[in-house]
Give the backbone structure.
Amino acid sequence: MEREIEEVSTGEVKTATAGTMLVASALGSCIAVIACDKTNCLGGIAHIMLPGCARNKNSSERFRYAEDGIEELLRQMADLDSDPANIFVIVAGGANVLQRKDDSICKMNIESVLDI
């Protein structure tokens, strides 16, 4: 079976069913929150850039934030008839790519995503 491949860029949230592979590359300090529903063969990725939530809920960039991105990911999964009981989540990223001792964004991103 040939699969369609879709990139999930920074600040995007995408979901897909069987036949589509979602990919989030070049994460750096960003975090890919990957939700999978094996029972219904669907999943999604929220490509999180910032901790917390957006101040402006009407902004097109609000999904860059952990709270808003994860909320949208779960909403999209529900729209595809996913049962929350069937969803498991994997997180990847949150690196201190510049290896700065005072770089806190990676740690704040990790904490924000795990708290949610």
